From TrEMBL:
Top-level taxon of the source organism: Bacteria
Domain annotation Histidine kinase: ranges: 20-244
Name recorded for this polypeptide: histidine kinase
UniProt keywords, alphabetically: Kinase, Membrane, Phosphoprotein, Transferase, Transmembrane, Transmembrane helix
Molecular function terms, GO-annotated: kinase activity
UniProt keyword Membrane, yes or no: yes
Length: 262
């Protein structure tokens, strides 16, 4: 559809802008990094406090380099093909609930100011084929948004369901959704929420969470379904094509390296 084309165009120009910025930053910090390292290695002529200061500088440069690298990862969507593998959305749902615990359980434990998270998982759910890290990242973002939408507490559900095949597909589809009982979105917000940089959170928001999810969904041929009502809550679902036949479950749960934002 036209909206999808527009959205892809926006993501593409955003990606170009990001890689341009990353390139400039890398060029600028490289000499700073080399000279600082050089100074630290030349034993002589440095006082202890001078050395400490340079170490602080070096660490700051390292942080910037890491941020730039992450930014690159984030937008390198079309270039590199990540390997798709069969994965269980039920398992991801459980992981994501755990990984985000600090965010939703970290509320004042007063009456009515608690976010209750539960999972409702359909038994015998077909696997889907995808990049596990990406889908996990998308779900984490959905949970964060849901928590943001419930400043005075509420219910958060991560739900999986098997649905009939989408048009042109031979296998049942599989949906994972995050539902909250939060503030909801008005019509304009619902229409625009996938746009990069669209946020209603002011300084606290980046407006990139759902844009990123949109990119991830596209790569997985997943459909995004958004239902929202002001004052009642929001449900955002991702619907994938199910794998044709059951695949033996992965041996061990993959290692998860994720830290929740402060
Ligand atoms: P950010 O969270 O930084 O604002 P997003 O792209 O994740 O960026 O979200 C864009 C906007 O969509 C949010 O600012 C908010 O207005 C709206 N939104 C997203 N998820 C929800 C939700 N679960 N409930 C209400 N509004 C939401």
């Amino acid at each position: 559809t036209q909206q999808a084309v527009l959205q892809q165009e926006r993501l593409r120009s955003l990606g170009q802008m990001a890689s341009g910025i990353a390139h400039d930053i890398n060029n600028a910090i490289l000499p700073a990094m080399l000279y600082t390292e050089g100074l630290l290695e030349s034993e002589k002529g440095l006082s202890t406090s001078g050395r400490q200061q340079l170490e602080v500088v070096l660490r700051a440069i390292d942080d910037v380099a890491a941020t730039v690298a992450r930014m690159g990862e984030f937008y390198r969507q079309h270039g590199r093909q990540m390997p798709f593998a069969p994965l269980s959305l039920n398992r991801l749902a459980q992981q994501v609930g755990e990984l985000t615990r600090a965010r939703w359980s970290d509320m004042p434990q007063q009456r009515g100011l608690v976010v209750n998270l539960r999972t409702e998982l359909e038994a015998d759910l077909p696997d889907v084929s995808g990049v596990e890290n990406e889908i996990r990242e998308a779900l984490i973002n959905l949970v964060f948004n849901a928590v943001d939408a419930m400043p005075s507490g509420g219910d958060l559900v991560i739900r999986t369901r098997r649905l009939p095949p989408r048009e042109g597909e031979g296998t049942d589809s599989v949906c994972i959704e995050v539902a909250d009982t939060g503030v909801g979105m008005d019509e304009e917000t619902r229409k625009r929420c996938l746009e990069p940089f669209f946020t209603t959170k002011g300084e606290r928001g980046t407006g990139l969470g759902l844009a990123m999810i949109y990119g991830i969904a596209q790569r997985h041929h997943a459909t995004i379904d958004i239902e929202s009502e002001v004052g009642r809550g929001t449900t955002i679902g991702l619907r994938f094509a199910g794998c044709p036949r059951p695949v033996a479950a992965a041996a061990a749960p993959s290692q998860v390296a994720y830290r929740t934002a402060a």
